[in-house]
Design a protein that fits this description.
With 142 residues, the chain is mostly helical. It contains 6 helices and 2 strands. The two termini are 14 Å apart.
Length: 142
């Protein structure tokens, strides 16, 4: 590990550019695929992240947004009959978000579309795992 401040600053700048660029590519990819299904980018992200029953707070965390933004997105998906709010089994103050049968079907179609020409599609499973591990390590507080 280098202690040269100039090297560290250059590496940080270049990595920030790469991560930001990749994030933009992924967001654009999601947005393009979402449009073909009549969804917005945030709606597609919510469907992608709804891997099972979860609270609005859990979904917002997965979407990297505020719970109020996730609520707005879920309201739209609920109106389309893709998501239901159900009582939480352990916390009567909370609701769980659950995909309907139509929501499950649309999510499967979305995942199939997202897998085609993905910005990360050129990486194998081992490479994706290594990238994820490196990014997680980089995010850990020092």
């Amino acid at each position: 590990m280098s202690t040269d401040p100039e090297f560290a600053a250059t590496a940080e700048r270049e990595l920030c550019g790469l991560v930001t660029g990749l994030s933009r590519q992924i967001e654009e990819h999601v947005r393009e695929r979402a449009t073909t299904l009549g969804l917005t980018g945030p709606q597609a992200t919510a469907l992608r992240e709804l891997t099972g029953p979860m609270t609005m707070r859990d979904l917002a965390e997965r979407m990297s947004c505020e719970p109020s933004n996730a609520t707005f997105v879920i309201d739209k998906l609920e109106k389309r009959g893709l998501v239901e709010r159900r009582p939480h089994p352990q916390d009567r103050r909370a609701k769980q978000l659950v995909l309907t049968a139509d929501g499950t079907e649309l999510r499967a179609r979305l995942l199939e579309l997202l897998s085609k020409d993905s910005p990360l599609g050129g990486l194998g499973e081992d490479e994706l795992g290594a990238l994820q591990n490196l990014l997680l390590r980089a995010r850990q507080p020092r």
